[in-house]
Amino acid sequence: MTPGPEPANFLLELRGLRKRFGGVVALDGVDLDLRGGEIHALLGENGAGKSTLINILGGIHQPDEGVIRVDGGVTRIGSVTDADRLGIRLIHQELALAPNLSIAGNIFLGREPTRYGLLDRHRLVADAELLRDELGLLELGDVGEPVSELNVARRQLVEIARALAGRVRILILDEPTASLSETESEALFGKLRRLRGQGVGIIYISHRLEEISRLADRITVLRDGRSVGTQRAAALDMRQLITWMVGRELKEHYPRPPHVPGAVALSVRGLRGPGVHDVSFDLHCGEVLGLAGLVGAGRTELARVLGGLVPATGGEIAIGGIPVRLRGPAAARAAGIALVPEDRKRDGLVMTRTVGFNLALPWTRLWARGCMPDHRRRDAIIARAVRDFSIKTRSPDMPIGTLSGGNQQKVVVAKWMEQPPKILILDEPTRGVDVGAREEIFELIGRLVSQRMAVLLISSDLPEVMNLSHRLALYRDGRIVCQGAAGDFTPEQVMAELTRKVSPNITTDHP
Amino acid sequence: MKHLRSLLPLLAAIALLLIIFALWVPHGRFLTPGNLMDLAQQISVNAILAFGLTLVILIGGIDLSVGAVVALAGVVCVSVLNAAGPLAGLTAGLGAAVLIGLANGACAARTSMPPFIITLATMLIARGLALGFNESRPLPIGEEQSFILGLGNARLGGWLPLPVVVMLVVFAVTAVLLHRTRFGQHLYAIGGNREAARFTGIAIAGHEIAVYVLCGLCAGLAGMIHASQLYSAEPAAGQGFELNAIAAVVVGGTSFSGGIGALPGTLLGAVIIGILDKGLNQAGVHFSLQYIVKGLVILIAVYTDVRRRKSSVQ
Q1: Interchain CB contact of B313 with A (< 8 Å)
Q2: Measured between CB atoms, which of A84, A114, A117 is closest to B201?
Q3: Partner A contacted by B192 (CB < 8 A)
Q4: pLDDT in the model for residue A47
Q5: Cβ A146 vs Cβ B312: under 8 Å
Q6: What residue numbers bound the domain in which B235 lies?
Q7: Is B4 within a domain?
């Protein structure tokens, strides 16, 4: 245990933090220190242990091993109240607000002012207004408004106001800009810099390198539950940083399959639906069309319309040249479209059942006709899927939850392949999947494409979508703003295009 | 004002029902002061049950045991009462109800069993205890127990039924608790987003236990009023009361998914259910049809409520 260079200056020090949940090691030795008046960015991929770490700091989990020092003294953060007392405030990634309460009610939740033991609503509102004005969060607006009526950006402001009510010494933000526009993000950064000026120590978690390099004073990379290195932002070595994140030189193997486009498999013209405004594109057999867009751009909404989950309100969809109307998921499936949804645990799998159950579920019409289920047929379907897609499970009878994220994802894809669809829509297929399994999923995509399947790959991971796709469509505000061969784009171009804020009625047309 | 507006449809429904039954019930016997006081008296037991249940449903729970607790509290109260006087009887009756509530709350807060199952089980247990207490026989209340008999039957000033006063007091206390205290605010937070409430440091288990205890307490009080109105504690009393009370809560606009609802709505919901019961009865509608009408009214009320909420969100 080596003390830092100026131990007395550290507001917060973490040494050798370890935490396991059952058999899963979430943290495997995290060291981190934070000074007052510093923004310390924490960078890491999904599953690197970021959320576990902040939950420990917030008093929600206890570490199994390791030391937490606040102001140089060893501290135990045993509960949310302890964290609060230490001035540690969290802003969670999934906004933790009560939608049915007002803005003011959420800001002071758990700390409501009372008078004669009764809730003092006037002071609640007055305090919230005061806080709003002090913090310069004027966009917050009427603090009496229920949170359910607010858009994401304003909800984020409620979270920030809540975290900053009372005495704050350490502020922890988890991916705060995930659903903010560029202007909104800039406004947030301004506020964070002001707090830094006031001596608050800020831990800023993000995977957006670009914003971190502008905002942070120091950057620590977390990988596989371990802190692998810290850099000063002033002397930033981007390559080193990326190497730390990925765990090896950034030559991740993207096996882009050879591009041999065939006939048009899916043709979409002027498609409209909830969150989808005028989308047109052609997807060919044997091709990966990458749909790149930020979170909140409406990509998932498009996937849901194409998967038949939400009815289109206008436009045309043709499959193999024949116009179709997707009246429901079954119709989409019958037309040859299979959707691998973004949230596999909620929409893709029956989490309470086994691997085999999930694999055989789409094919009940093959093995469960009438009242005598054909178990041999069912088992054959399952065995084929497990073998063809190398799903790593001890047995098909294991609960699906015992599989790793990557293998669960393979199940979601494999369950459609007993009779392969013509068109496969993958919505964020590598979310929450570790690096090794990602490659397997990439290879899987390559194999399906070489079997002439048409793949629509929706992703917010730029390297992934740029390297895997043959053609790229940039998606913003429910529209394709630009499309072309993937090789014609540079990451900078794509990023600039995706983050550009335009008034919602203007579409930019590119040649 | 916003709150008042959300009550308008319920007030309109009540006005409509009053007009219908004023015209329908023969000889204009429905809309007389005496009949309305009877109506208020009949509503009070269901309303008190519904107030407690509102708290439970608001945090996303359910309590099926309240009907059985009505019987248990009555039986315990009367048997102690006849031996040791009114104060001991009241204490014992409420104590029994609180114990069931405590069991419900402790199981709901400390285990991952669903409240529906927990309270289904305690409903059976409470019913069994009530039946076993006096070998399934009713326990008449001694004529000298004027205090307890008055609880269900006395009329203040010769016209205002005491149970209605008790009901209004319970309403006021619960409404203040729910709408004017931090405790109430936290119940809304727990019902609206349990994780958010947990992350804020709200002691969810404590709140949950308190809510089930309060619900039990309401059921105990309702049980003693009910026994008083019957002049005896019936071990089989209160069958299906939980369903009538749930009906009042949902008709009053409280969402079963938690976090949405308010006590005035429940009061009006109980009034609607009460008017339907009494009005259909006095209009001479066959009891089989009464059930169907009540079922349809619940469906319509909840459907319009869900519709209204959806359109206000969009």
Answers
A1: yes
A2: A84
A3: yes
A4: 63
A5: no
A6: 38-304
A7: no
Residue B3 — pLDDT band, cuts 50, 70, 90?
low
Residue of B nearest to A112 (CA): B182
Backbone angles phi, psi at A267, to 5 degrees: -125, 125
| CATH number 3.30.70.260 given to A264-499 | no
pLDDT at A282 over 60: yes
Asked if B189 and A84 come within 8 Å (Cβ–Cβ), the reply is no
0.90 cut: is pTM over it? no
Could you say which of B180, B192, B199 has the minimum Cβ distance to residue A100? Answer: B192
Determine the Cα–Cα distance for residues B189 and B204; give it in Å rounded to an integer: 10
Residue contact A90–B181, C-beta within 8 A: no
Contacts of A112 in chain B (CB under 8 A): 182, 185
- Domain containing B181 — which CATH number? 1.10.3470.10
pLDDT at A252: 54
Q: Residues 442 to 501 of A: which have CB under 8 A from any B CB?
A: none
- For Cα atoms B263, B268, B274, give the angle at the middle one, nearest 5 degrees: 130
Give the CA distances from residue A203 to residues A54, A167, A175, B169, in Å, rounded to whole numbers and listed in that order.
9, 16, 11, 51
The residue ranges of every structural domain in chain A are 98-166, 264-499
- How many contiguous H segments (helices) and E segments (strands) does chain A have? 17, 22
Number of helices followed by number of strands (H, E) in chain B: 13, 4
Return the residue of A nearest to B179 by Cα.
A119
> Which pLDDT score is estimated for A247?
61
